[in-house]
Write a structure and sequence with these properties.
homodimer; about 200 residues; alpha/beta; Dihydrofolate Reductase, subunit A; nine-stranded mixed sheet; two-stranded antiparallel sheet; 5 helices; globular
Chain lengths: ~200, ~200
Amino acid sequence: MGTVYCDLAISLDGYLAGPDQTRDTPLGVGGIKLHQWKFDEPEKHEREIEAIVDAGAFIMGRNMFAGPGAGVWDADWTGWWGEDPPYHGPVFVLTKHEHDPIPREGGTTFHFVTGGATEALDRAREAAAGRDISIAGGAATANQFLAAGLVDELRLHVAPVLLGSGARLFDGGALTDLVQVDARATPRITHLRYARA
Amino acid sequence: MGTVYCDLAISLDGYLAGPDQTRDTPLGVGGIKLHQWKFDEPEKHEREIEAIVDAGAFIMGRNMFAGPGAGVWDADWTGWWGEDPPYHGPVFVLTKHEHDPIPREGGTTFHFVTGGATEALDRAREAAAGRDISIAGGAATANQFLAAGLVDELRLHVAPVLLGSGARLFDGGALTDLVQVDARATPRITHLRYARA
């Protein structure tokens, strides 16, 4: 059975996105700085970048798919990722509002799950067929799965950035101890990998 | 002129101490786990352990010296560190209540400063005579100096521990960006060193 992992870029002060997230600035003020290492020096982080999307199925929150704000779906919205999203597999989006699947190029299909985390994980497990499952974000979704003890492996890419406020990881309580299984420090980013103790 | 540094053991979720700090459990529930690496494998972290107290003067908050709770001083209290505290130099304790200096063995003297962070830093600078100055903690004091832009170098020892709540670093707002100047990952702890950008 595949591992359930959570692979996130995070500020030194613990945020996955800065304050004031909007559809124009989905990562909030300063949030893009957490991801700069992937664009600036991809060759130095090849293994870590590939691992982010090396899963058989993905789970994400409604906000990660469509930005902040609840309510019914905007019929034209198909995600931030253009015609060929980087997932190349099924993505299960947690939502309160039903939506038909949105197939994209390259094997990515967004499915919409109204039955909560457990239903999403069941469907992802079935779709992944033994491959790993990624809890892709955002913070609320990651916190929900972490607090429920559903995450086997946590990978953090710690950027030397302080965002001051925003969407904070580990804000969900009920946490277990971890074992550090790998770590690699580079001048721009520190890669940390933990397993459940 | 010496560097002002802040050298702290921190949980992966950003706490310097766990919840429910008392005089019996000054690090709060689980907080001791952040420091276990120093006791278990000191020989693997010699450089980092020495650097923690390699300063000409120290500044700490009232809670770090005497535990939580405000009010006048307990006349018998001389700190947690026994006869020969590890500082071997002057320690300036931020407080609202005057107190005569407390000299200890090995060169440590606790001085009590009622004029706030600026007065403490002025006195520490003079006492350090060109050597570095350590902002020793706890979280409120570290946050105060960080938010005021008074810290030149931040050293964090990130433990694979989740405390869930407690005394959180970076809870003071008004933060600048950092440059990562050194990092060393070991299975038990990750040493990160940052300078002000």
